[in-house]
Amino acid sequence: MKFKLTAREKSELFGEGIVTIILLLLLNIATFVVLDQLIASNPELENGIFQIKMSLSFGPNNIRIWSWGWLFGVILLIGDGAFIYWRLIRRYRQMQLRHIIAELHYIADGHFDHRIPFQISGQMQKVVSSVNALVDSTIKAMEDEREIERSKDELITNVSHDIRTPLTSIIGYLGLIENKQYHSEEDILKYTHTAYLKSREMKVLVDDLFEYTKVQQVDAPLQLTRLNVCQMLEQIAAGFELEAQNRQIQLTVDVPKEPLYMEADGEKLARVFNNLITNAFKYGTGAKNIYLTLRQSSPEEIKITVANDGKPIPKEALEHVFERFYRAESSRSRATGGTGLGLAIAQGIVQLHHGFIYVTSNEKLTSFIINLPVKHQEK
Question: Does the keyword S-adenosyl-L-methionine apply (predicted)?
Fold first, then answer.
């Protein structure tokens, strides 16, 4: 809406104008009287003015087109008008600024959803727009900070939960041994083996957590090398052949015949594909095939797809799969052996390479699609 003065402010502005006019009128009269007396007391000045008058007269009766009083009055009138306009505009701008300050105080009192609502013509509108933009950015920063704090609390809660479960088992079984609550050496071996497996679970979680915190740092260093992506994908797939055979899953690699090179951190990028293939094995229920496909989508970009033909991911879960500790299944059971960090780590590594990853899922295929730049450029 347009900026409007209150009735009180309009009266104040009108009074300002009246007072200014009266003061200027008194000043003009005083100036006029002083100049008139000055001219009358100086014959040379009066004669000079007379000669100028005669030179600007015309006709048989020497009609004059001006007098010094008239000319002086016109000059004063123009000057007075300019001064009155400047003073009233100055006062008007002060009133606008007073409204802006009042709006800022209102926002500062905790009304963070409020913005300066009025439109002002001229340069003052830039101030209003800047203030609103500053408030927006400040509120967003506060919301981001709260989200970070909430996220940190959630991370601590999830880590505590996931570590406490195997740790409780380890303490329990070692406690049985410590208190000699066993009947045979076979029982001891059983308890120690279970404690060993639980400790390995904890190590996997800690390793994944450490990796996740590293890839979340935007300035995390990358060991860049020139990679043959075709060769790397074939080697990664070869490492999963035995597991694929045991699960009766066909792992298919489809890459171009010609070598395809890119600048990347080979170790970190291999972690991405290992996580995605492992994820397909664990969560692609009923899958008979896993497809690893590489294509060059443009001279500057490649696209890699890891897909499986297992049970699709529910639609409501698709937008959450890259969140840390998220699992599509409702329970937090570790029957599948996952930490819930694999996809979050994969996303973090892809982002470090200035690429992006997304997922699609339907009855035919669940596909994780990665787009990566061929040449790494620092941003």
Answer: no
On whether the CB atoms of residues 51 and 68 are closer than 8 A, the answer is no
Cβ distance 206 to 160 under 8 Å?
no
The secondary structure of residue 2, as a DSSP letter, is B
pTM for the full model? 0.57
Chain centroid to CA 142: how far? 12
Phi-psi region of 286 (alpha: psi -120 to 50; beta: other; left: phi over 0): left
Mean pLDDT of the chain: 82
CB-based contact 228:259 (threshold 8 Å): yes
What are the pLDDT digits (tens) for 101-128?
Answer: 888 888 888 887 888 888 787 777 888 8
> Whole-angstrom Cα distance, residue 20 to residue 88?
9
Could you give the count of Cα atoms lying within 13 Å of 350 in the half-sphere of its Cβ? Answer: 24
Rounded CA separation 24/93 (Å): 22
